Amino acid sequence: DAKTTQPPSMDCAEGRAANLPCNHSTISGNEYVYWYRQIHSQGPQYIIHGLKNNETNEMASLIITEDRKSSTLILPHATLRDTAVYYCIVIAGSRLTFGEGTQLTVNP
Amino acid sequence: DVKVTQSSRYLVKRTGEKVFLECVQDMDHENMFWYRQDPGLGLRLIYFSYDVKMKEKGDIPEGYSVSREKKERFSLILESASTNQTSMYLCASSEGPRNSPLHFGNGTRLTVT
Fold it and tell me: Which of A13, A32, A42, B93 could form a disulfide with B25, with the two C-beta atoms 3.0–4.6 Å apart?
């Protein structure tokens, strides 16, 4: 499975868009990009996933570059409850492997 | 909404005890997983199951076993608990298709003394 690189931490002002980057330069053609988040003392929560096209759901948008070597998770209007560790994962099957992720802190 | 329920939120056991961690999901998912989470190491896959009575080793199966007698229930067993098994244990489930997202429980924090 492809390795991902994320910044260890980011800050965002409440109400603004949070843009979380992820590099996955070794991604192969059949691998999906997944995003999860983990709020302190809870289990990881699925956010969104995609293969090639940009995706949007009620939680977030996922922008995948044309060469698929990087992606960005966008939380359009961040709230204090979006403070969490965000994990970007690239995989072809169900055996997800989580790295250290990005600690997003949303400030009032 | 999918609900994955882990039987205990916190558990304290002694070295050498046999420990059972139970997980139940209510959405008829085919796949179930056990992970452990440790600071600096992320989540690591212990065992998973694609069907009843079926199991496959993950990345760190040593010291663990699993049981899946019913579709909705996946148990993790520590035959003889050791202090290096002190960790947060997370259960997850997903639908049949390989790229279905995982749904996690809230975890069991196990301390082995």
Answer: B93
